[in-house]
Amino acid sequence: MTALKENQKKYIFAVWLQELIVITLCFFYLLIRVQPVLIPEFRTPVFINGTEYLQNLLAVPGGIMDWLSAFLMQFWVSDAVGALCLACFLWLLTVISRKWIETISGSSPVHTLQLIPALFFTIQLSLYSIHLNSIFSLIFNLLALILLDLWISRNGAIRIISAIAFSCLLFWATGGAFLYFTVLAALEDLLLRKRYLSGFILLAASAVLPFMASSTIFVVTHNQAYIHNLPIEGQTETLYAAYGLLFFYPLVITGAFLLQVKKVKTFLGRFAYSVYLIRVGVGTVVIILLAIIALQRTTESIQLFKSVFQTNRFARHGLWPEVLMNASHSTNPNILLACQTNRGLYHRGVLLDSMFSYKQTFGLSGLLFNKEWCQGWPEEASELYLDIGFVNEAEHWAQEAIEIKGISPSLLRQLGIVFMLKGNHETASRYFNILRKIPLQAAAVDSLIACNNDPSVMARTADFLRIGSSIPEEDVITLGRPPLKALESIVKKNPANTMAFEYLMAAYLLNGDLKEIWKRAADFAAAKNGKLPRHIQEALIVYTVLNKEADRSTLDRWVSTASMNSFSIYEQVLRKYHGNKNNAQQALHMQFGNTYWYYIQFLIPPVQPMESQNDFQ
Amino acid sequence: MISNNRAAAALLAIVFSAILISCSGCSVNQKSVDAVPAGKQAVIRPDYAGITIPPNIAPLNFRVMETGNGYLVKIQAGRDLIQVESANGSVQISESQWNKLLRENAGQKLTIEIFVKNADGTWKKFEPIVNIISRDSIDGYLTYRKFGPLYNMYKKMGIYQRCLEDFSEKPVLANNLTLDNCMNCHNFWKNGTDRWLFHMRGGPGTAMILTVDGKTRKVDTKTAINGPTAYPSWHPSGKSIAFAVSKLLLFFHEIGECRDVLDRSSDIVVYDIETNIITTNPLIASPDRMENWPAWSPDGKYLYFCSSPKLEMFEDTTVEGDLAYDKIRYDLMRIGYDASAQTWGHLEKVISTDETGLSISEPRVSPDGRFLLFTATKYSQFPIYLQDADICILDLATGKWRKPDINSDKADSFHSWSADSKWIVFSSKRMDGFFTTPFFSHVDTAGNFTKPFILPQEDPVFYETCIHVYNAPEFSHEAVKVSPQVLAEAAFSAETAINAKPDPAVIAGFKPDEKKTR
């Protein structure tokens, strides 16, 4: 007996080792490649202490899984914690899947097959779009199924009653994911146990229960009732992984049925230990290879998502060198990344010296967002506008972000600060009070509450002081994005608001509005300690070239000899190609691709009408 | 065995006692303390001091804002006394005790005595807060639209119904059932739920969801003569509904209140439920004016509404992109109506903006026909975003109007009368200037209001973390009988949906300005 047990242990040890290797690889993949702290960037599942939050979720099928998932995700303070948490749950899923396969096949210990769900989840996690609730729901349903199979399977009537009771409970607890339990229990009965009545009753229950519940008890759509917490919910990428997860378990049962259990037992069962070890080894290699192939296919999407989420996160935490590093590595620029890059350049003090070293093909939209991108990335738009001093725009887009993404700690903080700066301390306190109810946020919010309660504390905080002095005094009407008129108004009120002034000059550069740059050069130089940044100098040169009557002494005063010399070379290259713009562009790109001359000559997009003029007509 | 039972009983007793001791804000048996007078009234939030309350309102739970180590609150009316002890100042009153106290003491004073324990263990007693329990019951239900502060985009929105006699709130319809669409303008005929309606925009289709005598259907009120309808008012006969047809523009300010709304054109139309026909008249849909916010008088002989010259009259053509939003002011008008002949009478200006310098919106006549409440602002017909919005009362017998002292320095607007004309509910931003919440006030026969009080909540600190807006509060004396699922089904059902038809007489004769109705 002891020898038998010892023998059994050896086999189990091999499987455990296999699981350890694969799950450890998953951990490192998640840690290094996916970086779990970026997952909440997609849709922050906020968790709020208190009964109201719980009650609201309990009123929805599957809400308890959302609650649990949101609670755990609050603690993903670092990639390591997030990766560890995910790896642990993937391992748990693997073990439970193995137990279930062993239960239905009667063979033990099963190897390799149980790792497939973890692989599919890892693929989905790579694209940042899946949450813990799907994994939890699956785990709970499999546990219930094992319970049913092991302890309640003998008496047919008891099994049906128990299965239906479990189904109702699981539907409430895990939402549409209860289908795992009900459908699998039904398939087991139909295919493996030949209990047709029980099987059909369970299949009917799985079809009817969500419909009935959503028609009577729960205020959710039928669609929500059927798919909430299933891996296919809300998925648009890697659908094969989502559907793979959905069909894996029914396929296992079907496979067991088709091969007959005895054959399965033989297939999965115990051979001589050496043969078994070889099988486990081959299985491990195969699953790792499959993972590599599958993940390779998603590399491009991962890079795009990661670049965007990472840049936003860096920007939110003021990590501007990292923002610029991401921008320089980005192969797929867009308006959001352009805006964050320009914001990073400003905070590094080089916006008007280096902005054309980065892609500015989106023109003004790449500096201040446009309406569509504001709607797509409202939180990021809100952060930029608050930085400049547009508190109302910051309020507007932060509120839009809450509507789209739901409450998140960063949005609550943002809105609290916005209302505090607007002098509405009562509203600010509501946002801070909620923030205080989110795990791990209390310490950070206490300093904000202190500022909110005592204006003198706020006045001593450099950031608030800077933004507070930047808020416009004159009203400007907009339909969303602040127009240049609003920037001009801010600069007029407070030329010392260097961010607004630099953004205004950058906007003129991007729009090719040389006359405004010429007009404001002296004031801008005064605000910048008597020196003009490189791109402004370049713009002044272009202006004098295009306007012969322009006072050239301005150039002598503000433009460096280096810029003048550089422009002479630029002109020489242009002349060399006798007006052949295409050939000239190629030649100029290497040497002058980072100059304003190159931008205005080759890259400037058509200037869009001002929003305030365009939309009101 | 016996000793085991005793041990278990003792353990239970200990656990029970521990729960009692640790619980904050629980009602307790009578307790008296020796206390030194504080010489002032305690500050409580929400402010439930000096108010008149209905005898059927849910407990007014609150938080004592005075610093202390313990709190004792005695709530007394007549011989009935409720005592609440609290460790942190949160006072949560037993519903059953509260209901009994109010029921048995209608017309009496309700006194709230607050004792606060000092750090040294002594107590101080604050001057009592004295409220009045009115003999007039309030309508049992309040229906409102609840959502986050609305800008351009919205995801979660719903019409909810709250029982005012307890804390239960149920969704009438949540927009997760209707493709996350917008829903608004819920309105009940004579404060009942046999006939009522609301509107939807987007999702399953822009339309009115109309319930008449238990049957719910979707009615697309857009016809050849009008666009989608809003701001409904039921004719007292229950057979027709007046609507505004507006073309609104949401725009933003860079300072102060962020949002504002411009009415670019509007008309009034009337929908006949039996014939499914929409009609109008040049007097209520003039091409030269913008007519809005219809409200029938309770006898059905007058239609009150707001009216302003058309937008073009205000625009400064020399200023590029001039919105003229702050120049538009609406008069209060009324027009006679003969329901049996379906004919319109004489058009009168009830209150002129020339006289008041204010813009009038949201007129509502009390069910007894004695008063008319309206909202007055410096400009616009959309007061919710204007902090100067105040509620005004017009005495229909004397024709005199005034701003009652129920107003605050923040936006006070959108009011609804109880069925007996004794209570009003209105939306106010007085708590913080941003979030709208319902406030109630009692009105006597002379048109005097009592100090408004906020919708009570079970959690005494509910409003300190509430980031929802309670929009368009409407009284009803009974619960909505149709389930959210049935309403959602009606919203999607093509079988029961109907398209309203334009009045052929209107098409043949007067046709409202095309630009307006598109």
Largest sheet of chain A: none
Distance between the termini of chain B: 84 Å
Shape of chain A: elongated
Rg from alpha-carbon coordinates of chain B = 26 Å
Assembly type of the shown chains?
Answer: heterodimer
Q: Just give the CATH class of the domain at 303-470 in chain A.
A: Mainly Alpha
CATH architectural designation of the largest domain in chain B: 6 Propeller
Structural class of chain A: mainly alpha
How much helical structure, as a percent, in the residues of chain B? 10-25%
Largest sheet of chain B: 8 strands, mixed
Task: Tell me the number of helical segments of chain B per DSSP (H or I, 4 or more residues long).
Answer: 6
Structural class, from secondary structure content of chain B?
A: mainly beta
Separate helix tally of chain A: 36
Number of domains of chain B: 2
Question: Which range best describes the helical content of chain A: under 10%, 10-25%, 25-40%, 40-55%, 55-70% or over 70%?
Answer: over 70%
Q: Which descriptor suits the 3D outline of chain B?
A: globular
Strand percentage of chain B lies at: 35-45%
**Rg of chain A to the nearest angstrom?**
31 Å
CATH topology of the largest domain in chain B: the name is Neuraminidase
Largest interface: A-B, 47 and 38 residues
Mind telling me which CATH architecture of the domain at 303-470 in chain A this is? Answer: Alpha Horseshoe
